[in-house]
Amino acid sequence: MKIQNGAQYMESLRKLHPRIFYKGERIKDVTRHPATAPHVRAAAMTYALASKKKYQDLATAVSHLTGHTISRFTHVHQNMEDLIKKIKLLRLLGQKTGTCFQRCVGHDGINATYSVAYEIDQKYGTDYFERFKKWLIYIQDENLMVVGAMTDPKGDRSKSPAEQVDPDQYVHIVERREDGVVIRGAKIHMTGGVNSHEILLMPTTAMDEKSRDYALVCAVPVDAPGVTMIFGRQASDERRDRKERIDVGKPKFGAVGGEAVIAFEDVFVPKERVFMDGETEFAGSLVYRFAAHHRANYGACKTGLIDVLIGAVGYLAQVQGTSKGSHVREKITEMSHLSETLYSSSIACSAEGWPTPSGAYMVDTMLANVCKQNVTRFHFEIARLAVDLAGGFIATLPSQYDLKSEDVGHLVRKYFSGVAGIPPEERIKLARLIETMTGGTTLVESMHGAGSPQAQRIMIYRESNIEKKMKLAKALLGIPQKKRASKKN
Ligand code: SF4
Ligand code: FE
Questions:
Q1: Ligand closest to the CA atom of residue 301
Q2: In the chain, what are the domains?
């Protein structure tokens, strides 16, 4: 692995020159800009853990392509154990950062593309799989961060990609050349996009025959000519100013992942970086596999950061002298119960993993969708309990500037202290941490990241196998299984 640790990862980003805008201005260095640096530090943790012996079993893997030791985030799952190790790694990273560390999106894109490229080649005799393996070996050996780019803006949702009034609402091929393709369009909600090295573009939905130019998978460097990123605003992002160390809540890491719009304005992609071009019937399974891998993650990364939240609430209860209350214990128990239920489904869908024809392992798709669906409910309930236990002062707390003021600092300290012997600063810091972990952008991400709840419900219904279940009921009641001929009126 060329990039060996977090510092080298940041150094590698400084060598790139992506076109990134935030609040109308260009960001020159994402590792130092206050809006992006917290997210860079969270992603850097994926590199840092891989450099520590203690964590190497989870954070690294052996490449089945080269035999080299690689980051797990560039690995193609070879068995059930790989799937489970990823889940454990995500929880650990959630605990270390208390936020989204972003690198899983590219990892899931790599795994989905690997298996689908193989299957396209089997059907059409194309060479996408060989191209993809070459690109992947480059990613593994350099240890690069990849942003998995799936979601298109979608324009009029009642129309298919090819039917849009504005054809750029979905990324598409505008020109096919001998040596590659030229693409146009945009991807939105791109977690970790501004601090990745490479973009792996995938279709966002199943495609009809007319949408051939939209059935595209390819890889583009973040600073390729024609690529522009616009970094999104998040709740309280002004507090990321370096001076706001207490009020920001998490002094080192971002509230959530750090998302961007990535626009592609006639970007040339060489042939060897194209892994699907027009095979519309494979777009659906690629989306489905990517989504299932990513939905499996949510019961792990979120559980990691909920561990931090439960810890913050538990310690705040001590600081406030309420920790012995039976209702406090009861609510902390409920938070843990919900959180561990999420984790159980991440483990379960990995334990029920299965090999695709390429050899790459997939999670159980039903259980992965159930896992993410539960996150859209339980994380909200856990946040509600955290806010309940913390108390109303997290909404009315004076700023850190008042805390440090010569005029009123003594009053803030006096009236925001808790049990004797614990500095009031600790209570204030805990309040800000809980505020940021239960606030706007964090919960929106839990609801819609890896697909909105309705997307999971569609999949859950599709995989419910109602026919089989009806047969079970009939068998139990002795009702004949044969189809009855329908009577004509
Ligand atoms: Fe990874 Fe979770 Fe962030 Fe998705 S939300 S990129 S799974 S940490
Ligand atoms: Fe996410």
A1: 1
A2: 6-280 (2.40.110.10), 286-470 (1.20.140.10)
